[in-house]
């Protein structure tokens, strides 16, 4: 903002200063751009339809806008916002950082100020007024940066939105059906988002802890689709050291499941197991508040979804218990399961159930009387094991029936 000292500069001097600065604006812009190119050789400049660098146009317009506002007596020189918003968008779309953008701006203002100071001496403007002019110039710079940051943020948001759209398309394609040749069917889509096709993946399905839950910070490489009702993850090379811990930390507070590691082309199989585990979580058969790994829940995933088959087999397998009371039936069933699991005698069964060995011996004799030679058939024992474990998983057969 121009303050008292500048406002006291005689009008002819202000007009003379402005006339010289405007006449030199093109050359000054060229000088500034040349120095920018020298100090930032990696900077790739966009050109307009005429082939002129857009940065040169922007620099010249910034100089002219500032000087014209001074000549008109404006207290707070400003550029039209669209000019540098567009510049900021271009920087964002070309992958440059805000730090490099601001460094370029600071260099431009420093060079412009150096020439303005020379013109001020040439037309005999007092030092206090020039100091205020410098302060105004840096405030002007702040305005340019603010406009560019808005444009940059808009471009970044647009890029991220497009990347997420392409990422969702890739995930949808990957999970829709098996792929005999993933490189051919998925390679182009993966390349669009810079995702290197892995040899193996695991698919996760999440349950939102709240409708507006912030997306898990899974980091680069892991694909995440938050648009689905139940967010989906695709984890590349899931068996890589540290990958499981990273996912666990990122999904703290979430519920869900991660399917087994499978070849990339078989992603739907991993998804199927993850969805099965999520249904068990929703039914209260697997714990909430954490993301389960299907490979660590084999028993539940094999037995619990097979409820109809297990229930159909149970009456036939457990027919000998129909003649005893409910409490005694549960005790004998639990003892039978412990006996099959331990493949041991009464001491092992007693230890498993937390009962006295003599009680275990008594129950085992009863079981032998009820089932007879059927217990010597490996197939019958295996079927009993499936039925009884399924009942225990569902809470129908307490571990300690006493």
Q: In words, what does this structure look like?
A:
- This protein has helices at 4-7, 11-23, 25-39, 54-71, 81-93, 98-122, 127-176, 182-192, 243-250, 267-282, 298-303, 307-317, 326-342, 346-353, 357-371, 378-393, and strands at 200-207, 223-225, 232-236, 255-258, 262-263, 291-293.
- By secondary structure, it is an alpha+beta fold.
- Strands 1, 2, 3, 4, 5 and 6 form a 6-stranded mixed sheet that branches.
- A hairpin with a 6-residue loop joins strand 2 (223-225) and strand 3.
- The longest helix is centred in the middle third of the chain and has 50 residues, at 127-176.
Draw up the topology in text.
Blueprint: H1 4-7, H2 11-23, H3 25-39, H4 54-71, H5 81-93, H6 98-122, H7 127-176, H8 182-192, E1 200-207, E2 223-225, E3 232-236, H9 243-250, E4 255-258, E5 262-263, H10 267-282, E6 291-293, H11 298-303, H12 307-317, H13 326-342, H14 346-353, H15 357-371, H16 378-393
Parallel strand pairs: 4-6
Antiparallel strand pairs: 1-3, 1-4, 1-5, 2-3
Helix pairs in contact: 2-4, 3-4, 3-6, 5-7, 6-7, 7-8, 12-16, 13-14, 13-15, 13-16, 14-15
């Amino acid at each position: 903002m121009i303050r008292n000292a500048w406002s006291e500069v005689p009008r002819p001097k202000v007009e003379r200063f402005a006339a010289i600065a405007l006449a030199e604006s093109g050359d000054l812009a060229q000088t500034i751009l040349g120095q920018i190119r020298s100090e930032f050789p990696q900077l790739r400049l966009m050109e307009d339809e005429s082939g002129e660098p857009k940065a040169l146009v922007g620099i010249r317009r910034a100089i002219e806008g500032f000087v014209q506002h001074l000549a008109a007596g404006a207290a707070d020189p400003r550029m039209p916002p669209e000019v540098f918003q567009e510049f900021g968008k271009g920087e964002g779309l070309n992958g440059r950082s805000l730090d490099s953008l601001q460094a370029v701006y600071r260099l431009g203002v420093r060079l412009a100020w150096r020439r303005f100071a020379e013109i001020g001496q040439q037309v005999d403007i007092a030092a206090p007024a020039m100091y205020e002019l410098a302060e105004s110039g840096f405030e002007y710079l702040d305005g340019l940066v603010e406009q560019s940051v808005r444009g940059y943020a808009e471009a970044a948001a647009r890029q991220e939105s497009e990347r997420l759209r392409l990422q969702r398309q890739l995930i949808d394609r990957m999970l829709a059906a098996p792929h005999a040749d993933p490189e051919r069917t998925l390679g182009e889509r993966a390349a669009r988002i810079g995702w290197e096709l892995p040899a193996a993946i695991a698919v996760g399905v999440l349950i939102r802890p709240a409708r507006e839950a912030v997306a898990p910070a899974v980091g680069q490489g892991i694909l995440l689709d938050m648009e689905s009702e139940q967010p989906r993850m695709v984890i590349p090379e899931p068996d890589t050291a540290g990958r499981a811990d990273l996912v666990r930390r990122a999904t703290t507070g979430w519920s869900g499941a991660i399917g087994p590691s499978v070849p990339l082309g078989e992603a739907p199989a991993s998804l199927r197991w993850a969805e099965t585990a999520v249904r068990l979580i929703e039914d209260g058969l697997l714990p909430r508040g954490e993301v389960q790994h299907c490979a660590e829940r084999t028993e539940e995933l094999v037995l619990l979804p097979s409820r109809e088959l297990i229930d159909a087999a149970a009456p036939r397998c457990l027919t000998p218990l129909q003649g005893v009371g409910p409490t005694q039936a549960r005790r004998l069933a639990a003892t039978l399961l412990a006996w099959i699991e331990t493949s041991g005698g009464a001491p092992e069964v007693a230890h498993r159930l937390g009962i006295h060995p003599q009680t275990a011996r008594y129950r085992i004799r009863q079981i032998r009387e009820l089932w007879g030679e059927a217990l010597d058939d490996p197939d019958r024992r295996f079927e009993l094991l499936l039925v009884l474990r399924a009942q225990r998983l569902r809470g129908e057969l307490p571990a300690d029936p006493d």
